[in-house]
Amino acid sequence: MRTPLPALGLVALAACTSASDAPFSAVIAPFSAPEVSVSRGIGPPDADPDACYGHQVTPAVIETITDQVMIQPPQIASDGSVLEPGIYVTETQQRIVEERRELWFETPCAAETDPAFIASLQRALAARGLYRGAPTGVMDRRTRRAIRDYQAPQGLDSAVLSLAAAQQLGLALWDPDLAAGGTGG
After folding, report:
1. Are 156 and 105 in contact (CB under 8 A)?
2. Fewest beta carbons within 10 Å, which of 33, 104, 105, 181?
3. Where are the alpha helices (DSSP H) in 46-158?
């Protein structure tokens, strides 16, 4: 099941310049979280077909630099008056400031659809002061924000619960033998 989160919006940072000012630079960057989807049986090349994975794609950050280049200087009279203004052209260049990133992470399969699991998740997040309100068992906006608030300090800026975070919250069992490729028994 693929569950897309809100699409990215873009923000352009800009400043006003004149022909004699320094080059103009605009950076286009995401102002909201990257798009994330959750899938069973779809994952990185070495994925376990029975596991669920979150997939987060962070788009590239592109900088646009606009500069005014003088191609003909102004003609100025001896008294300082401008006989003919200078001629300028606008040159624009783009460069990638940050490359596009793709991240796969394992997630509990029940995290997106099981009301009992989601209610337990809400209680665990509430106990840490990240979720407010009664547990509803619905993966709503408040729950996703609390998940992101929990995971972001650990390096995963995602509203999809990772298996590692579920384990830290006491919601998923972890068997070290299974993780190391053993039989677990």
Report:
1. yes
2. 181
3. 115-127, 141-151
The separation between the first and the last C-alpha atoms of the chain, rounded to the nearest angstrom, is 31
Q: Structure tokens of 110?
A: 């029940």
Tell me which residue of 129, 133, 149 sits closest to 33, measured CA to CA: 149
Maximum distance among all alpha carbons in the chain?
A: 96
pTM: 0.57
Q: What is the pLDDT of residues 78-104, one digit of tens each?
A: 999 999 999 999 999 999 999 998 888
User: Looking at this protein, which amino acid is placed at residue 119?
Assistant: A
Question: Which residues are within 8 A (CB) of 177 and not within 5 positions of it... i.e. 6 or more apart?
Answer: 183, 184, 185
Which has the closest alpha carbon to 17: 75, 74, 66?
A: 66
Q: Distance of CA 172 to CAs 13, 21, 56, 71, 179, Å?
A: 42, 58, 21, 66, 13
| 185 vs 52: CA distance, rounded Å | 23
Between vectors from CA 100 to CA 156 and to CA 110, what angle results, nearest 5°? 40
Instruction: For residue 154, give Cα distances in angstroms to 7, 68, 106, 116.
Output: 23, 44, 15, 25
pLDDT above 90 for 175:
no
Residue pLDDT, tens place only, 109-123: 877 788 999 999 999
